[in-house]
Every structure is written in structure tokens, then in C-alpha cells.
Inverse folding.
């Protein structure tokens, strides 16, 4: 009998390797990196054009505008998550590996957030300035986005995993995922709006943190199950 | 102990059993619905604030309560599909989604018709209306996913998973919407909430209507599931025999 198990690789090593691989691939494809950011920028600048250029009006809608645009930008970048891996077959290899799929999916989600979510968080203050958001709300905006955008990636990952094998998936992905993201949007935008109105923040951060903890622990499981369904 | 459970999973068994139930369900629904509708529309006293508008409640409340039950039903069916791979559970979940979407739409529409005279607007971003709307979107998502996946088996499992994720999310959405809304307009005290204590002449017809509409939902679900059973099992011998027996002789 030959030993078919091969050298043992610890789960942590596999996790790190997946994360590194996804980050490297993302860095090699500059356009994929820039497009969601440009989309974010363009959508935000559509609002003053469509609503009004009046500073007071813009101050009122600033929080919601930045949050909705961040949500849409994260939706747009989701397709990169599993698509290429599905097409070149490396997703199948991932599913066949003896490592717990939860951690591999988590690594991919973290990599996706680092290249698509984090830049949005960093760009947000600039856009907030253009929308006349009061200065004291900047930190709240960045902090809520920092807590909220990972949830968007994690929820979105379930949707992409379910639709990765389909031919036309752009719209159906949005139809599936957008309703699930409603709580994040509500809490995040409300926190920023409250601070810019001078109200004290109550449980906004705790609620967002709770959502993040819940989705960190459960969403990768759902994504893993969905990947197994999609890749037969 | 589990035998009945797995027998229930056999489409043929369900088809025969539900065929025997249906006449009784029809009778019960017809009786309850006629009593409920006539009582609610003709004999319930006018509300001292809302007048005849109160009668919309007798459609709205039952329909809304069933549309809320639809997601848990689909999630339970989804768990059964994923764990025991029971085909019948998937057929029920598949048929429940469009029926649930219709009930949600009717609940939203009757709510709007009631809201127009009472609140003075067809639509308000009230917590309950908003969470109903989001639930409608979630159901549309499940239906869209089902129609997008070609393989029946993969579609069944994907929709089961999405229903479970959705069912976990529905309460979160509901509470976040309530929290958002109550902070926005603390004085949203609508007439439905502070109504005078219900007398039996108000709530007895409502209970009758709730049972009647529940029966209507169950009958629609059974009929639609029976249809799906025949379509999916069309190659099996018992369906072929059934169709042959139903054809008029010499046709």
C-alpha cells in the first residue's frame, strides 16, 4: 500500500496560502482592483447631480448616499470572488482538499474584503467631504464601514457561491443578496446620520459588531455548502 | 417511529392521501369563508373611528399572518431537503414560494388600500410595511434562483440553502427595520395599535377568516404540489396508470 495522504498541511498553513494566493492574484489584476472604487466614486457623484447641489440637502443625504454606494460597489466586485477559480478549475481543487472548507472560504472572503472593501472604507472620507458631511461624523462613517463592509462581503459570498455556475448571474446575484444586506445598511447609515445630527450613539456599534460576529461564524459555512451545491 | 415520516416523503403516498383530504378541505373552506365573509362584510358593527374601512382588516390580517408563516415553512422544507434529500419537501418548498409571494403582495396591497383613508397615504415607511416589502424581495430572490438553475437537484439544494439563510435573516431584518423606524418617528401610533378593546363581535369573525384563509393557503399548496408531483413523476408507472385511467374510454 502506498501512502495516499501525502505530507500533512496544517489548517493554518492552508488558510494562509489561500489568503496569499488570492491577494497576489488581485494585485496582478489592477483593473479589477480599481473598477469597484471608480464605480463607488461615480455613483456617489451621481447623487448631487440627480438630487441637488445645495449643501444642506447634501448633508442630509450624505450618510445614506455613501452607504448605499458602498453596498453597490461591494456587489459589483463580488463576482471576482469565485468566478475565475470556477472557470479554471481551481475551485474544484479547493473543494477536494482535506482542509475544512470553512477556513478556506473565510480566507477567500478576507482577501476579497481587503482588496474591495478596505479601499472603499479609506476612500469614504473624501466622498463624505464632497457631500458636506459634518466633520465629526467622519470617524463614525469609517468605523461603521469598517465593521459593515466585511458583512457585505460575507453575505455576498453566499450569493456568488450559489450562482457561480450560472450563465447570466449579474442581476440574479443582486436580487438574492441585496435584501439580505438591509440590516447592515440600516444600522450603518443610521449611525452616521445620527452623529451628523449631533445625537449620541447608542447601540449602533454593538449591533454592527454583532452582525459581523454572526456572519463571520455562519456565512462561510453557508458559502461552503453553496459551493458544494454549485460545483458538482 | 420514523416510518410515517419517510412514507410521507413518497410523492405517490402524498398524492393519494391528499386526494382523500381535498374534498373535506374544500367543504371546510367554503363554509368558513362564506360565514366569515358575510359576517365580516355585513354584520360586524362599524368602527367608531374607521367606519367601514375596518372590514379590510378581515382580509388583510389573515393574509399577512400566512405570508409571515411562509418563510419558516420553506426553511423547514429546506432542512428536510438538505438532510434527508426528500423530494416531496423540495416540491412543497418550490410551490410555497410563489404562493407566499402572492400572499405577501396581497397583504401589501390591502394594507395600502386600508392606509389610504386612515393614514392619508398609500404607502408609509412603517416598520411592518417595510419588513413585508423586504420579505417580498427575499421570496422573489428564491423564485429567481430556482428558475435560473437548470439542474433540478442543484436548484432544490440551492433554494433550500437560500431559504434557510433567508429565514435566519427575516427576524434580523424585522428588528433592524423596527429599530430604524421607531427612532425615526417615535410618534408612529397608528389606529390599529390603539384601538378600543376588541369585543367578540369583532374578533370571532376575524378568527373564522384566519382559519378560512389558512385553509385556502393549504389547498393552494396541496393542489400546486400535486401538479408538481405529476410533472416530475410523469415517467413512473403509477402516474402513467393514473393518466390512462382518467382518459375517457375510446378517446
Amino acid at each position: 500500500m502506498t501512502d495516499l495522504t501525502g505530507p500533512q498541511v496544517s489548517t493554518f498553513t492552508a488558510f494562509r496560502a489561500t489568503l496569499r494566493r488570492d491577494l497576489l492574484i488581485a494585485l496582478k489584476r489592477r483593473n479589477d482592483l480599481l473598477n469597484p472604487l471608480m464605480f463607488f466614486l461615480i455613483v456617489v457623484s451621481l447623487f448631487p447631480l440627480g438630487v441637488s447641489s445645495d449643501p444642506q440637502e447634501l448633508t442630509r443625504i450624505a450618510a445614506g448616499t455613501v452607504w448605499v454606494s458602498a453596498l453597490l460597489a461591494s456587489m459589483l466586485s463580488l463576482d471576482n470572488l469565485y468566478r475565475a477559480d470556477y472557470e479554471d478549475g481551481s475551485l474544484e481543487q479547493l473543494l477536494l482538499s482535506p482542509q475544512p472548507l470553512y477556513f478556506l472560504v473565510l480566507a477567500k472572503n478576507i482577501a476579497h474584503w481587503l482588496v474591495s472593501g478596505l479601499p472603499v472604507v479609506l476612500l469614504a472620507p473624501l466622498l463624505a467631504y464632497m457631500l458636506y458631511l459634518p466633520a465629526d461624523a467622519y470617524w463614525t462613517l469609517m468605523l461603521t464601514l469598517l465593521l459593515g463592509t466585511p458583512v457585505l462581503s460575507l453575505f455576498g459570498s453566499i450569493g456568488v457561491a450559489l450562482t457561480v455556475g450560472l450563465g447570466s448571474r449579474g442581476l440574479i446575484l443582486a436580487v438574492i443578496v441585496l435584501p439580505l444586506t438591509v440590516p447592515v445598511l440600516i444600522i450603518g447609515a443610521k449611525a452616521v446620520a445620527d452623529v451628523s445630527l449631533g445625537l449620541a450613539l447608542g447601540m449602533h456599534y454593538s449591533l454592527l459588531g454583532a452582525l459581523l460576529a454572526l456572519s463571520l461564524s455562519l456565512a462561510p459555512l453557508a458559502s461552503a455548502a453553496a459551493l458544494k451545491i454549485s460545483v458538482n | 417511529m420514523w416510518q410515517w415520516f419517510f412514507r410521507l416523503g413518497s410523492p405517490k403516498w402524498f398524492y393519494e392521501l391528499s386526494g382523500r383530504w381535498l374534498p373535506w378541505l374544500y367543504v371546510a373552506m367554503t363554509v368558513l369563508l362564506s360565514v366569515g365573509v358575510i359576517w365580516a362584510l355585513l354584520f360586524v358593527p362599524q368602527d367608531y373611528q374607521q367606519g367601514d374601512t375596518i372590514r379590510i382588516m378581515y382580509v388583510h390580517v389573515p393574509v399577512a399572518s400566512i405570508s409571515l408563516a411562509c418563510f419558516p415553512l420553506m426553511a423547514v422544507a429546506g432542512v428536510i431537503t438538505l438532510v434527508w434529500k426528500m423530494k416531496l419537501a423540495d416540491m412543497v418548498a418550490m410551490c410555497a414560494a410563489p404562493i407566499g409571494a402572492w400572499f405577501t403582495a396581497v397583504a401589501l396591497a390591502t394594507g395600502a388600500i386600508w392606509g389610504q383613508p386612515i393614514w392619508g397615504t398609500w404607502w408609509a415607511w412603517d416598520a411592518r410595511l417595510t419588513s413585508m416589502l423586504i420579505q417580498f424581495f427575499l421570496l422573489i430572490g428564491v423564485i429567481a434562483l430556482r428558475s435560473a438553475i437548470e439542474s433540478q437537484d442543484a436548484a432544490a439544494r440551492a433554494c433550500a440553502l437560500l431559504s434557510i439563510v433567508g429565514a435566519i435573516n427575516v427576524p434580523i431584518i424585522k428588528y433592524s427595520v423596527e429599530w430604524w423606524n421607531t427612532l425615526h418617528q417615535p410618534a408612529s401610533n397608528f389606529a390599529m395599535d390603539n384601538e378600543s378593546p376588541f369585543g367578540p363581535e369583532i374578533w370571532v369573525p376575524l378568527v373564522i377568516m384566519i382559519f378560512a384563509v389558512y385553509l385556502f393557503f393549504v389547498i393552494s399548496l396541496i393542489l400546486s404540489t400535486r401538479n408538481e408531483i405529476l410533472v416530475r413523476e410523469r415517467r413512473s408507472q403509477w402516474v402513467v396508470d393514473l393518466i390512462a385511467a382518467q382518459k375517457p374510454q375510446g378517446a
Summary: Chain A touches chain B at residues 158, 162-163, 165-166, 168-169, 172, 175-176, 178-180, 182-183, 186-187, 190, 207, 211, 218, 222, 225-226, 229-230, 232 (CB under 8 Å). The mean pLDDT of chain A is 88.
